[in-house]
Amino acid sequence: MHPSSKRWDNLAQEFKARFGRPPAYIARAPGRVNLIGEHIDYALFGVFPAAIERDILIACAPRPVPSDPSTHAPGSVIAENLHGKYKRQAFTPTRRPTLGPVGKEDVPKDAVHVEEWHLDIDNKDELKWESYVKAGYYGVLNHYFAPNETSLHPIPVDLLVTGSVPAGSGLSSSAAMVVASTLAFLATNGLLEEEAIKNGNLKAITKGSLVEMSMENERRVGVNSGGMDQAASVISTANSALYVSFFPRLSAERIPLPGSSPIGTQYPKSSSTKSAVFVCANSLVVSDKVVHARTRYNLRVVETLAAARILAPELDADKGEISVDELKSGLERMAREVEVLKPEGAGEGDELGVTMETMIEWSGMGEEAFKDVYLSWVDGKLCSLPFIHSLISFFAIVEATHFQLYNRAKHVYTEALRVLQFREVCLTASSYLSPSEEAETAVLGELGKLMNESQESCSRVFDCSCPELDELTRLAMEAGAYGSRLTGAGWGGCTVSLVDETQVDSFIGKVKAAYPPYRDLEGDALHEVIFATKPSSGACGESSS
Ligand code: NG1
Ligand code: MG
Hints:
By secondary structure, this protein is an alpha+beta fold.
């Protein structure tokens, strides 16, 4: 989406019509498709997403303060959405006491009370669009404005949102909203301007800190997510995917995809003739992050981290920097070591989960210490998250009868390995200067195979697929894809398939004819649910006055 596009101009005009002045700034943040590496970002293993062309745009401007500022609450917001179903919202941050330093997760029990800016983020019964706007604002308020200081106050803001990333579809509309909102509030408060940076009292924001801030902000909506979506939305560039790793710190490497000719990267321009694209297809099962998916997602986080704890003695766990080769051989070893998590004597078709008691015993920790480390973050956030849903999530996890440590760990280590193999295939292919058609087909075949193995593991081992996603990936293979898998958290949402660029139309035609929910869709309605995409550029913003 280019700043001079029609959608951009329409948004600016509509802002002017609604608020009586042009927007000062337009923030853009794209959704993302994850090509491979599912449910491993929160275990800090590398993932392989790319930003998509579909995005969220937020036009915004400071609202003039009334002549008597003492009658005026600082930082009030009027948020509107171009989409008719999302109603106009007005909200004002309040100051409230909280425990310990703002933003700290592990606050000691005797921590002092400090003030924090607070916004009521309420996602109880349905996804509320403004919750994501508030989540972005939350971080900006608490990072840049001392709640008890009178000299520097957040200014009132009007904003207008439009989005083309389908919600609840695994393409990360949520991260796109949070990143765009974070940028919008930084910009309207003058925190992105050179002048403000030079003043010294306000901090400049790097892409890395924007990712970290957006991650923290998105957790306020209730999912203990990793950082893949926010990194992809912020750091991506057109034509390449990203290898994002989180250990020992967040880093992103641009990796050219076969057939693309990235400009300005360290990799040589490939003279390949074959070009492949990724086709996103929405299963039309909404992955409901508000209740069920959130509990399932958070349960996976607990199982994955508890399994890692139990396996830790097998690892050189203190390692700081680790090369890709070391990581690869470590993962190969862990994929074997993981067998110790299999309940003794378990055979084909047996229950592979263990009870809470066994899980705690294996961890070598006392019950209280275990719950403190692995479960307290679920209820530890009760103060800042929608109360009811944190409780549901907590009790559902505490009352789960079996924890699938073996299956979840097996998925995590094998999936992390597949990501490294996928990266390696792409890098090797980009070094071919004049590849033959056979060599190119073989590369796409290898990538497709890894995607299929990932789908198999997500479906059978990690249990984050659903019948419709299994069906849609199977149909994609029948329609000629090199590989196909679910993308995002799963349990609904989109699949991503690797398809020869010249075959896209026939591929879409075949999937439409075979997947029942698509049969009656034509034109724009069909394009809304199944579309080809190439890696697009990451978040940006433009002053518009
Ligand atoms: P989606 O479902 O696209 O929101 C979620 C997490 C990611 C990652 C994937 C699974 C959030 C915000 N994002 O993505 O961090 O863990 O699931 O790979 O919850
Ligand atoms: Mg999301």
